[in-house]
Amino acid sequence: MALREIRLYPDPILKTPCTAVQELDGEVDALVQDLIDTMLESGHSVGVAAPQIGVPRRVVVVDVSKSKLGKNQNHGLLVLINPEIMESHGGKTMREGCMSVPDYTGNVSRPESIVLQFLDREGKQRVIQTEGFEAVAIQHELDHLDGLLFLDRVSSLKTDVFRRKS
Ligand code: NI
What we know:
Blueprint: H1 26-42, E1 47-49, E2 59-62, E3 78-89, E4 92-96, E5 104-110, E6 113-119, E7 125-131, H2 132-145, E8 161-163
Antiparallel strand pairs: 1-2, 2-3, 3-6, 4-5, 5-8, 6-7
The structure holds nickel (II) ion.
């Protein structure tokens, strides 16, 4: 177990498309554990993607079960390896934040429900359907794997990005 430092915008690794995992070896398992530890340690994070801790591979963890918005509808702790959105429906705008962009939040429009395929920590292929806050959190983390931040998704940097009150 290890707590890893979160890379902050404009670190170039956050702009780097990540490579798929070919084999679920001990290195990938250790990466998964580091992501979980780093997410839990932050106390408020609902997801972390591998590039945020400096590893450009297609692995993220998401857990919205302890958050106000996600506690009523979630799949608990999700380990998503090589995740892929198979279907998406609807649209919804929500305020998003990111550990790599600590001083700002932004209004982002995304599909409201998704069907997601991925490998879990044991390497089993799974398909889930999810909506609402969990779907938003997953899509936000998947964006990190393609080198995208919420700042790339807002309609206007002038009117849809807000400085956090500290
Ligand atoms: Ni993020």
